[in-house]
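Saturday, quiet lab. Running sequence design on the structure tokens for the scaffold JK sent over.
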């Protein structure tokens, strides 16, 4: 996919912003100017124009990124074309690394052969970064795209343990009895399935009591029927992706381990199937967390936050320097922001300001408030709190407030991503697994923990 060997037969790929097109065009020879005009190419987003030599061979490829750094044309081209290529980006608005990532995103295919193409990368360090990025994100995309009859809590755990990327890490294993006692809310979600819950608990280095590791958490519901509050058929169609938060967390953990040589990092993924059976949890049921917080189930389709609550209580025991969690949590976030922009929440203003700095050139996430007056929407007459509000208001905020309730030290910086982990093709023209929130958090960790 990427190479540091720029052979003579490599073809030039020029990425052009629409607002820089005129400046680029005036520098071109007559043939290219006329070719662009006759093909009505002006650098519009996702538009691709191939320029031939006089004998018909391909000389150059022009790809427009429009006015908003839209790289869907790059992904589209890489997904369909073979050959060796190199980039020319003087008239692009996007950074070279973002264009290279878009190239990689397009080449990926699930259960199909990918086009054999190579993009030249000059810097050896960048090449190493991209090789890791491609390997780790392809793994996560494969996990999300895998159907639930193949990926369940048991097979998910087994896959991670057998994967070469996880060979040198330190595992904590749990029996079913230990999961029931230490992750009781996860156990409650998964008790309805014939395949019982599992926990991925990994550290990249040995953790001592004085360490303040980064903890990365992912929601691992391998299929979500909604439980007895069953989802409508259309809403259930893609629920194999409900472990998308776990997949994103895996990529971030692996990238962070690669980039942050001195950091100690922990990955926690509670996994369960939210099925329907005689053992299903029901509205009105009450379960205790491992620390004794009593949770009343007001809605069985608000199950993901129960897994995250268990993971938060485990994270507390490490006195972490930062907690990051990813979860395909609420439809409310999708109604507010659509599929491409994940909502994020943070209890730390300094952390949020740094994320917003990364958002300035191109929005990759949107902060929603932890509006604490809405906590009363989670009040329970019989328990410490309910798992969901039923008034239909502020669903993403109340979900975040529920999770925050399980952070023991309120000064612990925490970032929560309510993401979709799926695309219908509006971003980079690819359908299926998506990893919204990953790139901005890779950049955040690299800038602040290296």
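Result came back. Writing it out in full:
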């Amino acid at each position: 996919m990427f190479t540091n060997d720029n052979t003579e037969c490599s073809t030039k790929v020029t990425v052009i912003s629409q607002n820089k097109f005129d400046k680029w065009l005036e520098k071109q020879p007559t043939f290219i100017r006329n070719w662009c005009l006759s093909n009505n190419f002006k650098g519009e987003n996702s538009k691709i124009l191939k320029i031939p030599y006089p004998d018909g061979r391909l000389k150059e490829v022009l790809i427009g990124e429009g006015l908003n750094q839209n790289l869907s044309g790059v992904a589209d081209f890489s997904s369909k074309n073979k050959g060796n290529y190199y980039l020319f980006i003087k008239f692009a608005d996007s950074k070279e690394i973002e264009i290279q990532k878009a190239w990689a995103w397009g080449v990926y295919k699930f259960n199909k052969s990918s086009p054999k193409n190579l993009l030249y990368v000059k810097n050896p360090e960048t090449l190493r970064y991209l090789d890791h990025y491609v390997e780790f994100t392809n793994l996560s995309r494969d996990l999300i795209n895998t159907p639930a009859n193949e990926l369940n809590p048991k097979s998910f755990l087994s896959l991670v343990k057998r994967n070469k990327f996880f060979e040198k890490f330190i595992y904590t294993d749990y029996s079913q009895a230990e999961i029931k006692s230490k992750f009781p809310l996860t156990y409650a979600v998964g008790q309805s399935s014939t395949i019982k819950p599992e926990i991925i608990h990994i550290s990249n280095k040995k953790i001592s009591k004085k360490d303040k590791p980064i903890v990365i958490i992912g929601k691992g519901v391998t299929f979500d029927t909604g439980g007895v509050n069953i989802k409508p058929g259309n809403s259930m169609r893609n629920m194999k992706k409900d472990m998308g938060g776990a997949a994103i967390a895996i990529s971030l953990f692996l990238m962070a381990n690669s980039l942050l040589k001195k950091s100690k990092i922990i990955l926690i993924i509670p996994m369960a199937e939210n099925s329907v059976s005689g053992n299903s949890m029901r509205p009105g049921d009450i379960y205790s967390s491992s620390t004794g917080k009593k949770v009343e189930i007001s809605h069985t389709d608000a199950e993901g936050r129960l897994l995250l609550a268990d993971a938060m209580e485990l994270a507390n025991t490490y006195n972490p320097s930062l907690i990051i969690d990813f979860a395909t949590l609420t439809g409310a976030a999708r109604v507010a922001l659509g599929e491409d922009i994940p909502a994020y929440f943070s209890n730390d203003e300094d952390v949020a300001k740094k994320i917003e700095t990364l958002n300035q050139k191109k929005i990759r996430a949107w902060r929603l408030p932890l509006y604490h007056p809405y906590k009363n929407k989670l009040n329970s007459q019989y328990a410490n709190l309910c798992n969901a509000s039923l008034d239909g208001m502020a669903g993403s905020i109340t979900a975040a407030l529920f999770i925050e309730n399980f952070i023991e030290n309120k000064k612990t910086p925490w970032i929560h991503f309510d993401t979709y982990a799926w695309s219908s093709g509006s971003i980079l023209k690819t359908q299926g697994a998506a990893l919204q929130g990953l790139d901005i958090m890779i950049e955040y960790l690299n800038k602040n923990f290296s």
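Notes for JK: The chain has two domains: 2-122, 135-449. The first helix runs from residue 21 to 25. Ask whether to fix the surface positions before the next round.
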